[in-house]
Amino acid sequence: METALLRRFTRSRLASTTCPCLLRSTFIPFNNTSFRSSRHVTPSQLISRSSYSTAPAPKTQLPTTPHPRKRPLIALGIETSCDDTCAAIVTSDRQILSEVLRTQHHLHEPMGGIVPKLAHHAHMRNLPSVVQEAIQSAGLGERGIQAIDVIAVTRGPGLAHCLGVGLNAAKTLAAALNKPLIGVHHMEAHALTARLTTRDPDLPTQDASSSESSVPIGSDPYPSFPFLTLLVSGGHTMLLVAHSVDRYTTLATTLDDSIGEAFDKTARELDIPWLPGRAGGPGASLEEFAKGSTDPERYLNRLPIPLSLRSGKSEMKFSFAGLKSAVTRIVNQEKAGSPIGEMDENKRQDLAAGFQNCAVTHLCQKVEQALVDCHEQGMDISSLVISGGVGRNATLRSRMDEICSRFEHGGAIATDKMSSKEKKKLKRGSSLNATAASKETTTRAARPVRVICPPPKLCTDNAVMIAWTGLERYQQGLTDPYDIDIVPKWPLDMLGTGIVPE
Q1: What is the pLDDT of residue 327?
Q2: Which keywords does UniProt give here (predicted)?
Q3: What is the reported pTM?
Q4: Could you give the CA distance from residue 158 to residue 187 in angstroms, rounded to a whole number?
């Protein structure tokens, strides 16, 4: 039995170098209605080619015989970058066939945060049954697991030992099944999730009697490139331009703590219990706790809005350490002044609301600055995609809607909604002439810059986004050898350069 398995594994390793499913000629457009190449915005129109180096060409020439497909592509995604064990099966026509997730909140809440060793051992226990359940519940038909075309897995960034659990499982599955392996950048997956969950507004409205799968989605998913992406999670606070699959430019990142970390530590400082379940955790609990505030402005004069002074307002950077420290000082002062040495619940709710307001305002200021800068540079930004765990925050979403409503896809800006200072700033160096800038309104374009947020359950870490990104990369011919390793620290800018950090 063992000899037969070894022979099968060896054959699959050898066959992977000439596997016909890796041919570019086999890739199908996402709408699966006709065999034509997907349209893309040429990155060289927006950034210099010298910014990137081309990945090395494969050593082996693949056969060129066309191999057309009659069904959508199917990808299995595996995600183990932090504290959730996830597997999902997704198709190229936007169907989520199955999704299984095991949370670890019960392990980490008593510790006040994520403990890498606990997360690693939990992944080891959970992943086999999670993958098995995802495959069994996907309804893959007679072919079963052989119907899967692509194995996608989070390669980085994340906790090293946790990443290793998922990558080793994915490599074993891909080799045994003789399927392509795709190592996915976790943050690219967050950025591209909206292209799975969002329909193009230019398409006709779906008829009530038709199913979602019958709605045409075009040859390229929506939002179209280029778009801004705000990645806000426990490990990242980044603002990027997504030029195309595999190519991104970072506009701003955090100098110290991520916004998710600031939310988590503030929740711990205020003794807020975690909300249970997939949409739970400390960040979600702080948002819910702040809703009970009766005086949300009580502490605003004692809480700083980071980098909002004149010297730092134009800097494209994020910072949350100072805001987090201010919360700690207020809590200590309130406890010291209390006869029982505790801060009452009403004050804690007001402080939670004040912290949330300052953190969100900081994000909004930098996103608005980025939109103005992109417009001045002639970059036609179609959308703002908010992703990551903090992307579930309703206050953040509504405030970003207000910001983006002032900007138009196609270059026009609704100046009637802007202050006089904003108008002057836009006028300097912009393509608008003096006459147009002096008017109360510009000619409005057909579509404003849209704020796009994936469904809340897909904002946190999940395997659906990994499987979908695997499909997007596969259709661009971006597959990986079976000997790839984890990349715990991996700047998103490095995608497309052919360089992977050690």
Answers
A1: 96
A2: Acyltransferase, Metal-binding, Mitochondrion, Transferase, tRNA processing
A3: 0.75
A4: 10
Q: Percent of the chain scored above 70 by pLDDT?
A: 74
DSSP 489: S
Quick check: 26 and 209 in contact, CB under 8 A?
no
Question: Cα torsion for 403, 238, 460, 140, to the nearest 10°?
Answer: 100
Q: What 3-state class would DSSP assign to 24? A: helix
Six token digits for residue 359: 């953190």
The strand pair at 227-232 and 237-244 is best described as antiparallel
State how far the Cα of 410 lies from the Cα of 188, in Å rounded to an integer.
25
Is the pLDDT at 427 greater than 70? The verdict is no
Please report which helix (H) or strand (E) contains residue 351, including its range: helix 345-376
What span, in angstroms and rounded, lies between the C-alpha atoms of 241 and 251? 7
pLDDT digits (tens, 9 = 90+) for 177-218: 999 999 999 999 999 999 999 987 776 654 433 444 433 444
**Cα–Cα dist 232/24, whole Å:** 34
Distance of CA 176 to the CA centre of its chain: 30
- Peptide bond preceding 223: is omega within 30 degrees of 0, i.e. cis? yes
Strand arrangement of the beta sheet that strand 181-185 belongs to: 96-102, 85-91, 74-79, 150-156, 181-185
